[in-house]
């Protein structure tokens, strides 16, 4: 896939392919509905405005998705979570929660440098922004989360396996609503229509078809009392699109008999219709 296309990027950490296409996606965390997609084009994407990369990515995507100034709660991973971004989001009436790198700027050093024990949490609030540090096990590193929507409180949480543990509320919400992109990618992978090809535009075409079908299935399930399984609904869509439509009759309109073979004369030649002549009617035709 290596060529002069701006969308194709070098991915050194990707094991199965070092070249690929990056895209930004905005998801509804509850329904996994894909609301906005934009391709990343490298240096062309970074030209123009001076704001940091994270602000140039997140805020414009929210504006194009018509989600700003509506007090929505946005969940991010640590690549996009920054303190200045959280303040700008709050100014635009939008809440934000996301994991943050401990070496990121403007974080409280007393929190990031604290040695936490297992099941221990630490909080630090500056104005509307709350920094949370939590260590689940002694064998794991602490996790740091930045939020403008939650308050400092621990609660008893019961896992799917029935295990109970005390965690910060923001950790529970992050685990509950983060990961919509992974869920959709996993669902699309099992019912993908993609084909093996070296043409990047074909890969994009098939991927967009998968995304559209996935989003259509989300809307179908949300508005149907007894929806079909996703695979059955996809088969029904394919059958409806592949069903041939009735073709209009070709040739002159009229009763010419079952044995009359209709053929189109070359150029603009005209002939008398034999069937019509037998009925006493002289009619010229190109058939």
UniProtKB/TrEMBL annotation:
InterPro entries for the chain: PGBD
Pfam families associated with the record: DDE_Tnp_1_7
Superkingdom field: Eukaryota
All copies of domain PiggyBac transposable element-derived protein, residue ranges: 2-214
Name of the protein in question: PiggyBac transposable element-derived protein domain-containing protein
Origin organism lineage: Eukaryota, Metazoa, Ecdysozoa, Arthropoda, Hexapoda
